[in-house]
Amino acid sequence: MIAILGAGESGVGAALLAQAKGLEVFVSDKGEIKPVYQEKLQAANIPFEAGSHDYARILSATEIIKSPGIPDKADLIQQAKAKNIPVISEIEFASRYTQAKFIGITGTNGKTTTTLLTFHLLQSAGLNVALAGNIGESLAEKVIKDEHDYYVVELSSFQLDGMYQFKAHIGILLNITPDHLDRYEYSMANYAQSKLRIAQNMTQSDYFIYNLDDAVTNEYFNPEDFKGQAVPFSINQKPAAKAFYEGTSLITTYSGSAENIETRTSVLIGKHNQYNTAAAVLAARLVGIEPEEITAALATFKNADHRLQTVGEANGVRYINDSKATNVEAVWYALDGITQPIVWIAGGVDKGNDYTSLKALAQEKIKALICLGVDNKKLVESFSGIIPVIHETQSVEEAINLTKEAAVPGDVVLLSPACASFDLFNNYEHRGKRFAEAVQHLVLEPLQQES
């Protein structure tokens, strides 16, 4: 019997795949199960429970598939491991039932943008490709029919922790910066090793695309000990890189000759998106997509909601929703990528933030800070004397009204919170949606929203 812990997108997808393969399956969720997932399980006659875990039933399983959100230190997981019951992720389980090639993408920041862009480049070139993983779509459910030649899969470290036999044909590691360290005994070494599982099991016919400019990646990854093909990209280290920039042109050299891919028409702004674009373009070239096809596809790409997404313009002021930026590094990338004066909206539930790295950019670019949160003390203390105008509010509508006083034509209003959203909002999506709605109330010249 397969026991599945967590009845969200990945858990229910795994349950449906297990049943389709003739396996006995039981689903358990300690919390509530959303109606849409209850309906899927009921329609398939898959037994499930909500609100508690039946330890005896779960610990009688031959294998456990757990949600990425459940930590290994949870009592039930510890008991399962003590009984030598394998505990794996949905991605590991799904990978057993397909011969398709995986393009796996991880990193502390930029995963979703790079995943969406890679998928877009392959799909635009006519390849038979599907999107799955941490992006919010179950790989296991897609594998039931298994109609694709490629799966582009966004992978969190939590998913990678439960993957053992999985092998990506192309693995991408964008960067490693401190995040979720509570799950890794507050050890960067442990966190880095988790991220590097993206390159596990590779052979000479597989490719590991990694950021040559990322210090932590280079500390823990040794190309000389790697059995696959290492494909580094860079902005700063041209001699060793297989992709680098000259102005707005991305130069790729992995094939032995220099190829020029123009990125000027891409909607992706900032240095961090140069890295994301380089990684996605290398993946596209490695599966055989020609440079001219890539150049054309870059011009038609639209990023996900809440990631440096322009949501409106009023009185010559551009409003950008970057609600997904829930850590300091993500905000740094946003500030670095915007050249206009900025009115910055930040705040929420602090995750132990150190704002030191933002202070130089703040002094150079930010004319006003609007703190949108219940407890703004750390933000205010960190930027007092650096940003000339600081306001506090717990209302997104009031925050937008304050921007009308602070911003002039040519400025950018940037929601890039650096914090979790749970003090005032359900999640970062809810925060970003409320921001976009508030902007639309004052917009004089609505823009077609990017999605």
UniProtKB/TrEMBL annotation:
Transcription listed as a keyword: no
Binding residue positions for ATP: G107, T108, N109, G110, K111, T112, T113
Keyword presence, Signal: no
A Gene Ontology cellular-component term: cytoplasm
GO biological process, one term: cell division
PROSITE patterns according to UniProt: FOLYLPOLYGLU_SYNT_1
InterPro entries: Folylpolyglutamate_synth_CS, Mur-like_cat_sf, Mur_ligase_C, Mur_ligase_C_dom_sf, Mur_ligase_cen, MurD
Subcellular location: Cytoplasm
Record domain Mur ligase central: where: 105-284
Entry-linked Gene3D superfamilies: Mur ligase, C-terminal domain, Mur-like, catalytic domain, NAD(P)-binding Rossmann-like Domain
Broad enzyme group: ligase
Catalytic activity: UDP-N-acetyl-alpha-D-muramoyl-L-alanine + D-glutamate + ATP = UDP-N-acetyl-alpha-D-muramoyl-L-alanyl-D-glutamate + ADP + phosphate + H(+)
This protein's UniProt keywords: ATP-binding, Cell cycle, Cell division, Cell shape, Cell wall biogenesis/degradation, Cytoplasm, Ligase, Nucleotide-binding, Peptidoglycan synthesis
GO molecular function: ATP binding; tetrahydrofolylpolyglutamate synthase activity; UDP-N-acetylmuramoylalanine-D-glutamate ligase activity
A Pfam match: MurD-like_N
Name of the protein in its database record: UDP-N-acetylmuramoylalanine--D-glutamate ligase
